[in-house]
Amino acid sequence: MSLHQLANIQVKEIKKHPGRGRPSKDASPTCYYQVDATLELKEVAIAIEAKRAGRFILATNVLDAEQLSNDDVLREYKAQQSTERGFRFLKDPLFFTSSVFLNLTERVAALAMVMGLCLLVYSLGQRALRQALERAKKTIDNQLGKPTSTSTLRWVFQCFMSIHLVTVAQIKQIANLTHERQWILQFFGAPCRKYYLLS
User: Fold this and answer.
1) What residues have CB less than 8 Å from 85, skipping those under 6 apart?
2) Which residue of 37, 58, 111, 194 could cross-link 6, Cys pair, CB 3.0 to 4.6 Å?
3) Which H or E run contains 35?
4) Is 192 helix (H, G, I), strand (E, B) or coil?
5) In total, how many domains does the chain have?
6) Residue 163 belongs to a domain
7) pTM for this structure?
């Protein structure tokens, strides 16, 4: 349905001589036509579309109305975006899921279970990082170098990709542990920091 219309339509005739310079006396001009109009909104059509798009149906299998109010249903519906982002994370090429071929249904189910557990651990780690940043009222830099308190754990993984454990003369050392990475590690628990030889 069109939501706009043209009004005050006027057609103007414009005569021009082809070529440059002063035309000869017997030269006939070429006629061009120009249309001028005003673009207006169709208020009735817009009102109909707004009424149609302003309402949508949400269904749930929770039949007890006392357990879930209308606001709760809407909140849970909007919260599905985080779940969808999680599945997008699992489909990422970094997971190499597309390179795994399984014949048996049981193995496919087992792989789905492992991936679900990976997503659970990832989500808990990201939640713990954001809560630690919020409690400390601190931020870390995102991909653009701007401070944020809602960083993704995937970005943190990318920041730590170049860190290596090096053993020299039976002494373990962490290579490439910069001040920025040590700053990020302080928002993780002690069990995590010990892997980087930090107290």
Assistant:
1) none
2) 37
3) strand 30-41
4) helix
5) 2
6) yes
7) 0.56
In a domain, 34, yes or no: yes
CA distance 29 to 19: 10
Based on the fold, state whether residues 33 and 99 are members of the same structural domain. Answer: no
Tell me: the pLDDT tens digits for 137-148? Answer: 999 998 888 999
Q: Are 130 and 142 in contact (CB under 8 A)?
A: no
| 130 has a pLDDT exceeding 90 | yes
Does 123 fall in a domain?
yes
Q: Which structural domain range is residue 44 located in?
A: 1-15+27-56
For residue 118, what is the enclosing H or E element?
helix 105-136
Regarding whether 48 and 99 lie in a shared domain, the answer is no
Both tokens assigned to 152: 């993704």
Residues across the chain: 199
CB 36 within 8 A of CB 9: yes
pLDDT of residue 94: 66
**Which stretches within 19-101 are classed as H helix?**
43-53, 70-90
